[in-house]
Design brief:
The chain is of the alpha/beta class. It is 41% helix and 19% strand.
């Protein structure tokens, strides 16, 4: 981290640690949409992004965009949670295992796929979030670094995700996992991969006890009210989503269920799901539509909308209050589902 990044991180931490009343003053006029009030600390964070002229990753060449995403998540990740961390290889894929201090013997494990539009993100970009989730839930987290577009378009990430789950089923003991308490999860593009892994696990009769889908990308067509309403000004932009589609979906129908699980024929035996959305997220409506689809197929599903949050809050575990609280609630749900 450079000196400038260090100073910006300290400034962000100080601003988001202020009392809510002070944050409201600094953030500007309250943002309200359909009765939803954007959290003061989130609104202030967005304003600071504009003041410091922090550009979106999608405006940069892909390598620089990946560096920008990593910088953003490091600034909001805070101090690392106290969990044991081990790097390993899952098949051919780099991976990282997070083991909570409370773990004894074999126990539940979450196979996690990071977000980033299938073109950004890695083990480091989601390190703080995975540490937080493992620490707060008491569940081991195995994060896998799948291949990224545009170098590796669809079906590379899809194939890697399925291969990672197959590896886990065959090597559960090596990572301290109870085969009867395996879960899959991810945020955004990672939520997409988690959803398709759950579908294939049910079709193939592979063990899976739970799916954690955090603002999942489920419909690459993206003709929804939320995609139109929140396409600018709330971190995830239309330009980002368009670039993600252009990079990942090359020569493929965007309604292919392996790309857009909202169009899938759901098999029997799908694992119970916890679907999380954010009120000010372009992906909100497609995530909630997928939750309804799961419920209509007879899957036990719980939908939770954090109405005052934006896309990306899953990585905000070290600054502010409202995003950390939302992530703590997610961790509690994972704990309840598996332990």
């Amino acid at each position: 981290m450079t000196t400038r990044e260090r100073l910006e991180t300290l400034g962000l931490r100080a601003a988001l640690g202020l009392p809510e009343r002070a944050q409201r003053i600094l953030a500007g006029r309250r943002v309200v949409h359909d009765g939803q009030v954007l959290a003061a600390d989130v609104q202030l964070m967005l304003r600071l992004q504009r003041v410091t002229r922090e550009v979106g990753a999608e405006t940069l060449p892909i390598p620089q965009g990946r560096e920008a995403i990593l910088r953003h998540t490091r600034m909001t990740g805070g101090r690392p949670a106290a969990v044991a961390v081990r790097d390993l290889v899952v098949g051919d894929l780099p991976a990282r295992l997070y083991t909570p201090a409370t773990s004894r013997g074999s126990g539940p494990l979450l196979l996690f796929f990071h977000g980033g539009g299938f073109m950004y993100g890695d083990l480091d970009s989601h390190d703080a979030a995975c540490r937080f989730l493992a620490d707060r839930s008491g569940v081991r987290v195995l994060a896998v670094d799948y291949r990224l577009a545009p170098e590796h378009p669809f079906p590379a990430a899809y194939d890697d995700a399925l291969a990672a789950h197959r590896w886990l089923v065959g090597h559960a003991a090596e990572v301290g996992a109870d085969p009867g308490r395996l879960a899959v999860g991810g945020d955004s593009a990672g939520g997409n991969l988690a959803a398709v892994v759950a579908i294939e696990a049910a079709r193939r009769g592979l063990p899976l006890a739970f799916q954690l889908l955090v603002y999942p990308a489920t419909d690459a067509v993206r003709q929804t009210d939320s995609a139109a309403s929140f396409a600018e000004g709330f971190y995830l932009t239309r330009a980002f989503m368009d670039l993600a589609n252009a990079s990942y979906i090359v020569g493929t129908d965007p309604t292919d269920p392996r790309v857009s699980p909202r169009y899938a024929d759901l098999p029997a035996g799908l694992a119970p799901a916890y679907v999380v959305t954010a009120g000010y997220d372009p992906l909100r409506d497609e995530g909630e539509a997928y939750a309804r689809k799961l419920a209509e197929a007879g899957v036990h599903v719980e939908l939770r909308r954090f109405a005052d949050q934006i896309h990306g809050f899953f990585n905000v575990v070290g600054v502010g209050r409202t995003s950390r609280a939302a992530n703590a609630a997610i961790a509690a749900k994972l704990k309840a589902a598996l332990t």
